[in-house]
Specification:
The chain is an alpha+beta fold and 411 residues long. The chain has 11 helices and 21 strands. The mean pLDDT is 93.
Length: 411
C-alpha cells in the first residue's frame, strides 16, 4: 500500500495558545449557534482557526461566497504575517486528552486523493464509511478552491486489532511540537513529530497490515471535507500534465489516522431531529409507511421524542440492516417539508424538542465498531450519519495546516 500516504510539511502557529487557536470541527453544534458564539469570544484577539473555517450552523444565515472570501483572505494574511512555522516532511503523533480523561492517539499524514473514492461500491484503498451528501460539497468547494491552506478535521480509521501501528511508537523517538488546553472544556492536546526511525517503523507496520477487499483507510470523520478535497483536486488536475499532477500539493489531503481499536474511541449514534414540521402528522406517516408495533418485537427499535414525551416503537420487517437505514429511508421518501438535522447526544435531542413544538426527534442505538470494516467491505458505504466517534466535544479540533497551492512561499 505504499504511495497511498506520506509524511507532510505541516504548519503550526508560532505563539498562539491552543485554547485560542483551536476550534472544533465545523460540522458540530449545527443547531446550537450559541456554542459558536462562545467560541468566537474564547478566541479573543488571537489568530485562530475559527477565522479559517465555515461553521455549518452559519450556512443558511450568511453569504457563502463572501464568507469563503473572508476565510481565504485570513489564510493569506496569516501566511504573510508570520503566524506559522513549518515542520517539514514529518508525521505528527497527536495525543488528545478527551473531556472524560481518556487519551486518543493518532498520526497526522498526507493521503493520496487518487486512491480515495466515496461512491457506493468503491474498491479503493481509501474509502468512505457512510453515504456522501453531494449537496454538502459545493459550499466547501467555494472555500477550498481558492484557499492557500487546508486545515483538516478528517479522522481516518485503520483496522488494527493487534495494535501494531500507532501504539508501539515510543517517546524517545518523538519531539514535542505543541501542547495545551482546548476551549469549552474539551480537554487538551499534544503533538510530537516522529524521527526517521519511528517514521520507518510506522510505514512498515502500515504496509504489513492485513486488509480485506483492498480497504486500508476508512473515513471515520470528515468524509465531506475529504470529498471536497477530491473535487478540488480533480478541477486542478484538468489543467496539469501527468508529471505535474503527480507532485501537486492539492493531490494530497492532510488527515489524522487513528486505530479503530483505540481504547478511547467510542461509537455513538447520531440522532435525527426534524424541524418545521407537524410532529403528530409525521408520526402518523411513519406508522403508515411501516408496520409498527408499540410493544417489543423482532425488528428495529426507534425512540421518538415529541415535546416532553418519549415513545419507543418497533419497525417490523425492516428494509435495512441497521435502524438508522430504516429511519433514513422513511425520511428520504416521505419528508416533503421540514428540515432534518443530525444531533449528537440524547439530551440535546430532548432539549431541542422540548423547546420547539414543531420538532420531532428520533433516537437511535449505537453501532458496534468491530463490525465497521467488514460491513463496508461487504455492503459498501453505510447510510449517511450512521455513527459518531464520541460526543461533539470529543471531535477533532483544527490544529495543523498545510499549503495546497503551488509556489506559495511567503511564510
Amino acid at each position: 500500500m505504499k504511495h497511498i500516504y506520506k509524511p507532510a510539511d505541516i504548519l503550526l502557529p508560532k505563539a498562539v495558545p491552543t485554547e485560542n487557536w483551536c476550534v472544533v470541527a465545523c460540522d458540530q453544534y449545527t443547531s446550537e449557534p450559541e456554542y459558536w458564539e462562545r467560541a468566537e469570544k474564547a478566541v479573543g484577539n488571537f489568530p485562530s482557526t475559527y477565522h479559517m473555517v465555515y461553521p455549518e450552523c452559519c450556512l443558511e444565515t450568511t453569504n457563502a461566497e463572501e464568507y469563503a472570501n473572508g476565510i481565504n483572505l485570513t489564510m493569506e494574511r496569516y501566511l504573510n504575517d508570520g503566524v506559522f512555522r513549518e515542520v517539514k516532511n514529518k508525521y505528527i503523533l497527536v495525543e488528545r486528552t478527551l473531556a472524560d480523561g481518556k487519551v486518543r492517539r493518532g498520526v497526522m499524514m498526507a493521503l493520496d486523493l487518487e486512491q480515495y473514492r466515496y461512491e457506493k461500491g468503491s474498491k479503493s484503498p481509501i474509502r468512505a464509511t457512510e453515504g456522501t451528501v453531494l449537496e454538502r460539497i459545493p459550499p466547501r468547494v467555494k472555500i477550498r478552491r481558492n484557499a492557500p491552506l487546508e486545515l483538516p478535521h478528517i479522522m481516518i480509521l485503520i483496522d488494527d486489532k493487534q495494535r501494531s501501528v500507532i501504539e508501539p511508537i515510543v517517546k524517545s523517538c518523538l519531539t514535542l511540537e505543541y501542547e495545551g488546553k482546548l476551549m469549552q472544556n474539551s480537554g487538551s492536546i499534544r503533538g510530537f513529530s516522529l524521527n526517521e526511525t519511528a517514521a520507518e517503523k510506522l510505514e512498515a507496520a502500515l504496509d504489513a497490515l492485513p486488509v480485506s477487499d483492498n480497504l486500508l483507510f476508512a473515513v471515520g470523520d470528515g468524509n465531506h471535507s475529504l470529498a471536497t478535497a477530491k473535487a478540488c483536486y480533480e478541477e486542478v488536475k484538468q489543467s496539469l500534465a501527468p508529471e505535474e499532477a503527480a507532485n501537486h500539493p492539492a493531490r494530497w489531503a492532510l488527515a489524522e489516522v487513528v486505530n479503530l481499536y483505540d481504547d478511547s474511541l467510542q461509537f455513538e449514534p447520531i440522532h435525527r431531529v426534524v424541524f418545521q414540521t407537524n410532529p403528530a402528522k409525521l408520526m402518523q406517516e411513519f406508522r403508515s409507511y411501516y408496520e409498527i408495533s408499540d410493544t417489543p418485537c423482532e425488528g428495529h427499535k426507534i425512540t421518538c421524542v415529541i415535546g416532553t414525551e418519549t415513545k419507543t416503537v418497533w419497525v417490523k420487517n425492516p428494509p435495512s440492516n441497521l435502524e438508522v437505514g430504516t429511519l433514513q429511508k422513511f425520511l428520504d421518501a416521505q419528508l416533503t417539508g421540514g428540515k432534518v438535522d443530525y444531533i449528537h447526544g440524547e439530551e440535546v435531542v430532548e432539549r431541542l424538542c422540548r423547546d420547539d413544538s414543531e420538532a420531532i426527534g428520533f433516537l437511535l442505538p449505537k453501532m458496534e465498531k468491530s463490525s465497521l470494516f467488514e460491513t463496508v467491505a461487504i455492503d459498501g458505504a453505510l447510510p449517511r450519519k450512521t455513527f459518531s466517534m464520541g460526543h461533539a466535544c470529543d471531535k477533532r479540533f483544527y490544529m495543523e495546516c498545510r499549503k495546497i497551492k503551488v509556489n506559495y512561499h511567503r511564510l
